[in-house]
Input
Amino acid sequence: MLPCASCLPGSLLLWALLLLLLGSASPQDSEEPDSYTECTDGYEWDPDSQHCRDVNECLTIPEACKGEMKCINHYGGYLCLPRSAAVINDLHGEGPPPPVPPAQHPNPCPPGYEPDDQESCVDVDECAQALHDCRPSQDCHNLPGSYQCTCPDGYRKIGPECVDIDECRYRYCQHRCVNLPGSFRCQCEPGFQLGPNNRSCVDVNECDMGAPCEQRCFNSYGTFLCRCHQGYELHRDGFSCSDIDECSYSSYLCQYRCVNEPGRFSCHCPQGYQLLATRLCQDIDECESGAHQCSEAQTCVNFHGGYRCVDTNRCVEPYIQVSDNRCLCPASNPLCREQPSSIVHRYMTITSERSVPADVFQIQATSVYPGAYNAFQIRAGNSQGDFYIRQINNVSAMLVLARPVTGPREYVLDLEMVTMNSLMSYRASSVLRLTVFVGAYTF
Ligand SMILES: *[C@@H]1O[C@H](CO)[C@@H](O)[C@H](O)[C@H]1NC(C)=O
Ligand SMILES: *[C@@H]1O[C@H](CO)[C@@H](O)[C@H](O)[C@H]1NC(C)=O
Output
């Protein structure tokens, strides 16, 4: 059933004399089982047809014919014939050879080559013309006169097939490795990026890459930190900063009023005060600073939170002025008989809500007479008993604030000093007219 080279018709043997390189062409071994898949030389087993199939040696053997010879495939072998020799295609057929179509002119070139228009031999691109038997997983590479089946980069030949190499098994990547068909890719943990070699991972400076920190950004290995300017605190989201309301933290930050501002706070003072050392309020002495509107005939009196212009001459009939703040009732005037002999004007200022009792003003006799005795009392202006007098000795006494008072408020107290000399039955009275300004605040 298998054709064999040794059964060539006699007429064809004539050609074969030139050069016949046949395989051993041994006949079929009848003792082989039916299912054998071994074929004699020059044939290969075709599993599809379950037959041995002729091998085209002209294609598979590089330079099967040397020199000027051309290769003619033949069942179980091949022939090398001179280029000029006529070829009958059907080497097996009987009778006259069929007419040869022009396209099937015998190929006068070595295997893997074909003649071009100028009758010179050019390489056949087996890969381009699908004349190869590379597997779909293989790459076909055309070679001069033949071709080669190779595995693509990243693939390895296992048996007949090309199989992807799992490069990740070789620890090419510093952090993470992703195997891909034919290749691999390194990946880095968040906060890192691939280095120039595409394998190592280098820290990303997120601060330079638009990290979403609202105020300050600090890069660190693999991550970054947001921070806020002074006076701000980091929001729970870790990025944004919100103003700290310093005023809400403590009521002692400012003596009077705390005003929160973006990133800071400031203390404010009421009118008539100035800020002292960022949190304290200090009364402005308008009289000393010259920021007052008092006229020539007036005296400027400063008090907590303001000032007052008082007439320099405050003496009322029958008193006459003897000095800037002293009025005298002349003994010669009968109207003065029951009046204190002198009235001295004095001014003072206190703050609101002082703890009591509080010594506020000391009265001192200016002249001391031997054997005389001085008594002090509040003669007027203390109807509510907010003050009392504490005698210190017989020449001085202390005016004491008895109750906490809240300003703004003004007292005019007549503090009387009565001087007595029992031996000489002498009695004299003088008044210190003390104006007490109570400021509106505790400072
Ligand atoms: C790294 O990968 C990039 C992008 O795939 C490529 O352009 C570059 O040549 C690679 N560098 C190296 C050293 O492999
Ligand atoms: C009052 O004080 C003066 C001066 O110290 C003294 O001379 C006088 O004796 C004192 N009088 C009495 C009653 O203590």
Notes: The CA atoms of residues 356 and 402 lie 6 Å apart. Confidence is low (pLDDT under 50) at residues 1-36, 87-102. Residues 368, 370-371, 373, 394-395 surround 2-acetamido-2-deoxy-beta-D-glucopyranose (ligand 2) (CB under 6 Å).
